């Protein structure tokens, strides 16, 4: 009995592949045997085989080169990304150091200026730092970290290297409240350096003015420099208050009023000095 047709086809296919493989092996062994000798020229089979294999070898070499190029490009891209990240980090570190250096330089300059007050003022100074400030009363008052135990008392004037900051209003053993010059209830005697006219500096809540109730029409001009007067015993004479930015007239144009541009930057208060005037006897003795 003959096998089914599909089995006969499978058997023929298998035999065909077996014959092809055997034939290839025989040709391979034959080539090995023919070409294994010591000779200088290639045989005809070798030339034929090299000619047949050349396109495939060339294609394989091209593919290998492209793969090598792509791999190298990926490796170089990864290296560039890492290098870029390192450079960015270094730039950010340098920017941070530069800003820190600028802050330190500004702080050093400010400290030098504060220390320079000791040379400019013939009075004892108590160095203090602003430790509290109510945002709702930003231009009214601050709290400093010096009090009665350090020699601070009510009525003393508080300054920094820019000029007058305010007056000590309330004192506790270790802290004090300073009423700022811009506060609505601030008042201090003043003098115009240009003509010697005496007046009164008043806070306006967000600004400062100087009035000359007993001066004439020429009592104040734009640009005049205003300093403290000598009528208040706790406030030394001659401390810088500010410069006149503009002149207004009040009370039927009889009392000149100067709008002051204070020397102190009240937006940024940090280090201050409490001025303790020397008693007349001690000052004369010195």
Q: What fold name goes in the CATH topology slot of the largest domain?
A: Thrombin, subunit H
- CATH level 4 superfamily of the largest domain: Rod shape-determining protein MreC, domain 1
> How many discrete structural domains?
2
Number of helices: 3
Q: CA-to-CA gap between the ends?
A: 143 Å
Helix content: 25-40%
Beta-strand percentage range:
25-35%
Strand order of the largest sheet: 1-2-5-4-3-12
Tell me, what's the shape?
Answer: rod-shaped
Q: What structural class is derived from the secondary structure elements?
A: alpha+beta
Main sheet record: 6 strands, antiparallel, barrel
Look at the structure and give the mean pLDDT: 78
Task: Report low-confidence residues grouped into runs of 5 or more.
Answer: 281-286
Q: How much is the radius of gyration in Å?
A: 48 Å
Quantity of strands, as a count: 12
CATH class category of the largest domain = Mainly Beta
CATH architecture classification name of the largest domain: Beta Barrel
Overview of the molecule:
The chain is an alpha+beta fold and 286 residues long. Helices cover 40% and strands 27% of the residues. It is built from three helices and twelve strands; from the N terminus they run ααββββββββββββα. The strands form two sheets. A six-stranded antiparallel barrel has the order 1-2-5-4-3-12. The chain has a six-stranded antiparallel barrel with strand order 6-7-8-11-10-9. It is rod-shaped and about 130 Å long.
């Amino acid at each position: 009995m003959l096998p089914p047709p599909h089995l006969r086809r499978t058997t023929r296919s298998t035999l065909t592949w077996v014959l092809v493989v055997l034939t290839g092996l025989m040709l391979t062994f034959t080539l090995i045997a023919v070409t294994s000798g010591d000779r200088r020229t290639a045989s005809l089979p070798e030339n034929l085989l090299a000619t047949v294999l050349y396109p495939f070898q060339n294609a394989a070499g091209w593919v290998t080169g492209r793969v090598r190029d792509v791999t190298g490009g990926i490796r170089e891209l990864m290296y560039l990304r890492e290098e870029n990240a390192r450079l960015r980090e270094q730039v950010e570190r340098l920017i941070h150091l530069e800003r820190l250096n600028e802050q330190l330089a500004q702080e050093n300059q400010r400290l030098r200026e504060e220390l320079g007050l000791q040379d400019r003022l013939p009075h004892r100074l108590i160095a203090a730092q602003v430790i509290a400030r109510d945002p709702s009363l930003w231009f009214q008052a601050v709290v400093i970290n010096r009090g009665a135990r350090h020699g601070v008392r009510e009525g003393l004037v508080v300054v920094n290297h820019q000029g007058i900051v305010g007056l000590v209003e309330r004192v506790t053993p270790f802290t004090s409240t300073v009423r700022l010059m811009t506060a609505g209830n601030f008042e201090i005697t003043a003098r115009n350096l240009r003509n010697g006219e005496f007046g009164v500096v008043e806070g306006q809540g967000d600004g400062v003015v100087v009035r000359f109730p007993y001066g004439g029409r020429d009592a104040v001009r734009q640009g005049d420099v205003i300093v403290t007067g000598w009528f208040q015993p706790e406030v030394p004479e001659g401390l810088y208050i500010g410069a006149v930015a503009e002149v207004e007239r009040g009370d039927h144009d009889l009392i000149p009023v100067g709008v002051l541009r204070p020397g102190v930057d009240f937006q940024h208060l940090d280090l201050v000095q409490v001025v303790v005037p020397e008693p007349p006897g001690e000052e004369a003795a010195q």
